[in-house]
Design brief:
Layout (H helix, E strand, L loop, with lengths): L1 H14 L5 H21 L2 H4 L7 H14 L4 H12 L10 H28 L23
Helix pairs in contact: 2-6, 5-6
Length: 145
């Protein structure tokens, strides 16, 4: 059992080394962008707002498909990033290796928000994005004039 825990710890320490900074930086950026997109841009209300013919039908389709395909956006962003940044760690990787690397980064960003929010809650911090919080309830007082 000791050998297994040492092997797992060694694997984790290697995965969290500073040379993997592009993965963690892009994963964090995709996580925040995904949360903003899902709570502010591709909302259910926005998806059904533009109904009708002409310009409204096109916008309805754009927001509706954007909402329906939200989980695929970070993976697609990872593939696009693989075209732009072929060798993020300077190891002489082929394009397909970079594509898998960035696609996995996009896929892990889907779950990163849950992990970060749970860790913050464990530390006693309520983590919300700007605009997600509710207004505080004002104490009853004299009526405004």
């Amino acid at each position: 059992m000791d050998q297994l825990s040492e092997a797992l710890w060694g694997l984790l320490a290697g995965a969290l080394s500073p040379e993997h900074w592009p993965f963690f930086a892009v994963g964090l950026i995709l996580t925040v962008l995904g949360q903003v997109a899902s709570t502010r841009v591709f909302t259910r209300e926005q998806a059904y707002l533009f109904r009708g013919k002409g310009r409204g039908a096109w916008l309805h389709g754009f927001f509706w498909w954007g909402r329906e395909t939200l989980p695929a956006h970070p993976i697609a962003a990872g593939l696009v990033l693989a075209l732009l940044w072929r060798d993020p760690e300077g190891q002489g990787w082929a394009w397909i290796v970079s594509a898998v690397y960035w696609t996995f980064c996009g896929a892990t960003s889907l779950f990163a928000w849950i992990a970060v929010k749970a860790w913050a809650k464990h530390k006693g911090v309520l983590l919300t994005l700007p605009g997600d919080s509710e207004r505080p309830v004002l104490p009853p007082g004299p009526p405004a004039r």
